[in-house]
Amino acid sequence: MKDTIHLLREKGFKVTPQRRAVIEALLECGKFPTAQQILEYVRKIHPEIGVDTVYRNLNLLADIGAIQQINVRGRDGNVFELTQGHHHHFICLGCGHTQCLDYCPVREKDLEQTATAYEFDIVSHSLEFYGFCQNCRVNRV
Description:
Blueprint: H1 2-10, H2 17-28, H3 35-45, H4 51-63, E1 67-70, E2 79-82, E3 88-92, E4 98-101, H5 108-117, E5 128-131, H6 134-140
Parallel strand pairs: 3-5
Antiparallel strand pairs: 1-2, 3-4
Helix pairs in contact: 2-3, 3-4
Family: Belongs to the Fur family.
Binding site for Zn(2+): 92, 95, 133, 136
Pfam families: FUR
């Protein structure tokens, strides 16, 4: 929590009680919570908080690189993860299980060459791999 609060301050943002509650929810709601799960947790502390406030804070935290927003197809909304170094994910299309890939398979040199060719200035990237986990693969047959 301290790292995220430090990052907010470093980027010039206030650490409001609502932001603190969203950060706490990200820590307490399990590995990949949805916005709805975060909202439910935050409302235990701040019953008056609205869904827009939670989404605004999640978007802010994603914009400053404090969290990753992960698109899980076939589910209602995305899931979120406190950033712990740059990495990507395997996501099961059957059950939604998400597994962290502990390295980045994107070759920086290739990416830079392509960006230069398109006159594009990359500031970050996100990559998810979709498929089926072992359990869902077995059940599909």
